[in-house]
Amino acid sequence: MDIQPFFTEEEKKQFFCKYKQLLRHLYSFLQKEDLSKMKELMQRVVALDCYGRDKNGINGLLRNIDTALIATVEIGLKRTSVIALLLYRPVLKKIITLDEVKDTFDDDVALIIRRLLKTSDLYARNTAVDSENFHKLLFSFAEDVRVILIMIADRLCLMRLGKQLRNDEDRKRLATEVSYLYAPLAHRLGLYTIKSELEDLSLKYTDRKQYDFIKRKLNETKRSRDAYIAEFIAPIQKKLQEAGLRFDIKGRTKSIHSINNKLKKQDIPFEGIYDLFAIRIILDTPLEKERSECWQVYSIVTDMYQPNPKRMKDWISIPKTNGYESLHITVMGPQNKWVEVQIRTRRMDEIAERGLAAHWKYKGVKEENGLDEFLNTVRAALETKENNPLDLMQDFKMDLYKDEIYVFTPTGELIKLAKGATVLDFAFAIHTKLGCKCVSAKVNGKNVPIKYVLNNGDSVSIVTAPTQTPKRDWLNIVVTSKARVKIKQALREETAKAVDFAKEMLQRRFKNRKIDMDEPVLMRYIKKKGFKTVTDFYVEIAEERLDPNQAIDEYLEQLRRETEINDHTEVRSAEEYITTTEAEEIASNKDVLVIDKNLTGIEYKLAKCCNPIYGDEVFGFVSTQGIKIHRMDCPNAQEMFSRFGYRIIQAKWSGKGDNGYIVTLRVIGRDDIAIVTNITSVISKETGVSLRSLNIDSVDGIFQGNFTVTVRDTTTLNMLTKKINAVKGVKTVERLNS
């Protein structure tokens, strides 16, 4: 294959070495003419520069081969997936058609490429991690588990090439995406080695200082750690040999990411972590002797070292849903240190390292038919058409990392649930209707409430009532995404019914009192009453917290006032007028903001929802009304980034903030006649600050005041806030968004 024009000498050497390695792993799975067909196609696509270097200078063909090696060697994918992976890019660039792939190879190769193209479409629109498109990405994954595995291989390859990414923001975006989506997916599919590497690399690119700190500490303690492991292992090794067992035994240091999590959660120094490593004993034993020999090793280890019964995990008797099997015990080793010991067989170890693909191999399942059980749950959640994709994303992520417990139905059927699952989770796991009508349960013969947390081995019988309906506080009781999705769906249906009922009732009351309803006036009345949505207003009526007749009386009062204002416009004194300026202001000619890295003189507006001022961390959002500037901590920022990432542009302050920016400060303190005088005095004395308006309220001895001021920049604002905080009687000072 003549690919010299695309390679340096070093790259050429790497390519042929990796190509041979790929063939060695795949050779026995390829069909007779696969190699010649593939060679012919590859020559064609390379000649057309399909695999040219990307914007980071990474060679496309080398990256493809690296990804294929990860998919084959580290994950265990075979012929169909690897051919699809190698041909996906030429199909994407329209050099080869899907029909040509189908005719040259088979329908299944074309099917995987088609599904990979669906995911690439999301990435091409820069929306792969957008909440709005998150469910589409999950649909692609849930259709075929091989798509997930190929995407995990691709992300791992790119993370390993992270140093070559020229843009630091691209590297951080990739690391963030990997940490919240691909590492949890790898975990759920049993790819623990890959999961750990993805997490470590994510930490490296998002918090390099912490990553380097932990790595340095691990290197510093390596000698003493190795000596301790050798001391711990020696007597076990001797006993296992005496028992005639064939085995490997080794110490394994925990991942940098997992050590970092311990440092954060436990708030301890590095030296305070006792379980920096685990000992793994891997047995070479036939299938029929696996369990007995694992328990024999357990007996030998616990005879020698005192076990901690609370930290014993048996995934041999009941494996995890992703096929993971192992015995985990924690024992007291020399120098009174707790040590985790993992006991498993060679087969179990391969499944633990390579996950689902290795599970298929040992179960005799074809790669084409292997689907993990949890994907069915993903499909079910997606099919409910959950209205809030952010919630779906959160529920999905939470479910990925959950450990499992196993409980029994009254008929003895085994049900798998997330650790921490309640009676209510169990009810929804059996059937949605059972969950909606659940009032309590009998666990091991005893009556328990719906919030009772289930334990491994519990026998559960659900008690229902025909009048029971889902409640909003149920969302705080359940931990599984299936239960959460079903409860939200039921609540929405209940709310819709209540709203229809309340609307009909209000219209009937209007009609009975012979009043014509003016929709705009009603909307203004609802807004004035403080309801965020019209639905909230009708729910208030449906749940009898607001009397319809009272609502009509208040509506009539609103109508009367509006009519009077329109009919009799009063002359107002100039003294009553308080000068106010719109928070949205057109940019001046002084180029206070630099938009999108280096563009100046562009018209923009400061968003009303967060009122940014000079010095705030800001970003630009391209809206239908032009560019709006928002604070990074704007209450709408998360939604804008997740739903409309492609509209976000960079923005930063330049020059000086001398025009003055409007900020409202909410001050809460002890109700005292002098407090307002003291605060206004502080404001008047501060250079570059002027008071525009104030609004004061006091209830039960508590003073609340909103002080609207004009400031030059965040430095001025921070100084002012500090001085107001020092006023006697002031408890808190906070900046309001709008």
Short description:
The chain has 738 residues and is an alpha+beta fold. InterPro entries: ACT-like_dom_sf, ACT_dom, Beta-grasp_dom_sf, NT_sf, RelA/SpoT_AH_RIS, RelA_SpoT, TGS, TGS-like.
CATH class of the largest domain, named Mainly Alpha
Report the count of strand segments.
Answer: 20
Strand content: 15-25%
Q: Separation of termini?
A: 64 Å
* Total individual domains: 6
Rg, please? Answer: 32 Å
- What level of helicity do the residues show? 40-55%
The biggest beta sheet is recorded as: 6 strands, mixed
Fourth-tier CATH superfamily name of the largest domain: Hypothetical protein af1432
- Morphology: globular
Assembly annotation: single chain
Number of alpha- plus pi-helical segments: 27
Structure description:
This protein is an alpha+beta fold and 738 residues long. It has six domains: 198 residues, Orthogonal Bundle (Hypothetical protein af1432), CATH 1.10.3210.10; 144 residues, 2-Layer Sandwich (Beta Polymerase, domain 2); 65 residues, Beta-grasp domain (Ubiquitin-like (UB roll), Roll), CATH 3.10.20; 73 residues, no CATH class; 61 residues, no CATH class; 75 residues, Alpha-Beta Plaits. The protein contains 27 helices and 20 strands. The strands form five sheets. Strands 1, 2, 3, 4, 5 and 6 form a six-stranded mixed sheet that branches. A hairpin with a 5-residue loop joins strand 7 and strand 8. Helix 3 crosses helix 8, helix 5 runs antiparallel to helix 6 and helix 8 packs across helix 10. The longest helix is centred in the C-terminal third of the chain and has 32 residues. The chain is globular.
